[in-house]
Design brief:
The chain has 173 residues and is mainly α. The protein has one domain: Vanadium-containing Chloroperoxidase, domain 2 (Orthogonal Bundle), CATH 1.10.606. 75% of the residues lie in helices and 0% in strands. The chain has eight helices and no strands. Helix 3 runs antiparallel to helix 4 and helix 6 packs antiparallel against helix 7. The radius of gyration is 16 Å and the shape is globular. The model has no long low-confidence stretch (mean pLDDT 93).
Length: 173
């Protein structure tokens, strides 16, 4: 039943609402949650932020490391193939590095960054809106099912929440 719902959502997002504008903007939006993009963001935060916000960059770097191992461990355990390996007529707008789809590393990293950035730069819904758009883009470009990005988002948000709580605890001694 879940696979049927996942397939239906996937086809709706990947095929039914496909259009040239989304074809143009979704791959770069997806890239925003790549490890490379967030590594650059973290370094920029460390270099250019005021002292009280430099910690945000350090937490993003720590989170990227934790997410890398967590996501790839889960991908290896679950072993769910990507939609393009299972479904026919997938519009694949980006090559995927791994055959495993569950959970989405991009979604995990997007929500990791959203939680950390909202902690340091204002609890603004825009961080989470952007993370949600990145999740949508992962389905649109043909890389993931909806459940992949939903679980990835939860894993990333929980990991970031834990890091922020740990950092706050260390600060308060």
């Amino acid at each position: 039943m879940i696979f049927g719902m996942d397939s239906a959502f996937f086809h709706f997002i990947n095929k039914t609402i496909a259009n040239p504008f989304f074809d143009f903007i979704m791959p770069p939006i997806s890239w925003m949650a790549s490890g490379e993009a967030l590594f650059i963001l973290a370094i920029l935060l460390i270099i250019f932020c005021k002292k009280e916000n430099k910690r945000s960059g350090i937490l993003v770097l720590a989170g990227l490391t934790i997410m890398y191992y967590t996501i790839f461990f889960l991908k290896d355990i679950v072993g769910r193939p990507r939609p393009c390996l299972v479904l026919s007529d997938v519009r694949l707008l980006e090559a995927s590095a791994r055959a495993s789809s569950f959970p989405s590393g991009h979604a995990a990293r997007a929500f990791l960054a959203a939680v950390i950035l909202s902690r340091f730069f204002g609890r603004n819904a825009a961080w989470f809106f952007l993370a949600g758009i990145i999740c949508f883009s992962r389905v649109y470009v043909g890389a993931h099912y909806l459940s992949d990005v939903l679980v990835g988002a939860v894993v990333g948000a929980c990991g970031a929440w834990g890091l922020v709580k740990l950092a706050d605890h260390i600060d308060t001694g």
